User: Fold Iaa-amino acid hydrolase ilr1-like 4 from Quercus suber.
Amino acid sequence: MDFSQWLSLTLIFHAFLSLPISSEPSPSPDVLPQIPVDFLDLAKSPEVFDWMVGIRRKIHENPELGFEEFETSKIIRAELDQMAIPYKYPLAETGVVGYIGTGLPPFVAIRADMDALAMQESVESEHKSKVPGKMHACGHDAHVAVLLGAAKILQDHRHELQGTVVLVFQPAEEGGGGAKKMLDDGALENVDAIFGIHVSASYPIGTVASRSGPILAGNGFFEAVVTVGKFQGGGAFNVITKQASVQRCNATVIFNENEKPFYPVTVNDKDLHELFQKVAGDILGAQNILDKQPTMGAEDFSFYAEVIPGYFISLGMKNETQGRFESGHSSNFRVNEDALPYGAALHASLATRYILEKQSKPNLPKGSFHDDL
Assistant:
């Protein structure tokens, strides 16, 4: 069943009954902390863990660059089909958006990026890249596996969801601004909030790091014949002018925003920060929630967070007993697969808790698929 068929049947069913998909009351406050614990146990089970590892390795062996993730997208769609999760495809060339739950508000999204980097892998392993000059050097293969793991957990509990979880698998985070194109294609239609997770070698396994407010920098690309190391021109912003004329030459600065759009600053929503602290505390313990200082790295998750409340999280994977884990964009980058269950459980728990808390408030978001039809 494709997404449009599923949505039509869901809306007809709701209109006929004029009732929620389930009349069971929301879990009591003392039950809420147990949900993330149960989800983590599920994610660590051999059935789910080994499945996530297999997906990650398959994607890692066959890396694809931005807007070329056709085989990666095919793997994702095959797994969604196996789980009977409806989806839209394609968005932004290769993107996939899946739906779990009632098809009605509240809507909350969880996101993974899919693209690899144009680098030759230096790590020698059984599952290293099979494609010369391309590798998953930033963990996007892990992000896809984690989001699919969360989807499996949520789909098994879909009858308990009094809302809709939107699974966003997006292309071209590495400079191509895939998130912006996903937005343009309607990936977040009706969505009220979005969460993103990124594996990190900076934090120990079993920890997460984030903060409220600005967390990552904006960035942009330009081409010229000089490398800009430093401008020394006094205190005024516009003090440097007509330098090409002074040097008796012509200069052109090219900002190719169509191919490489400028990324805004990534800003975490303060209300979602409070929800994150509760959920992560339930899963990992408050002592394992670390404060992440803002860094100069950039992320196209920022496009989502510009239009709806968003929250971006670093998932620790450092384990010194397993050797050194390099930072992203290194040819020696590798993923600690022990981090996958934590990411899957965190995604599933954040989405579930968001829906449960939204249910308890009378002011559901305006607009839904039901309103539009």
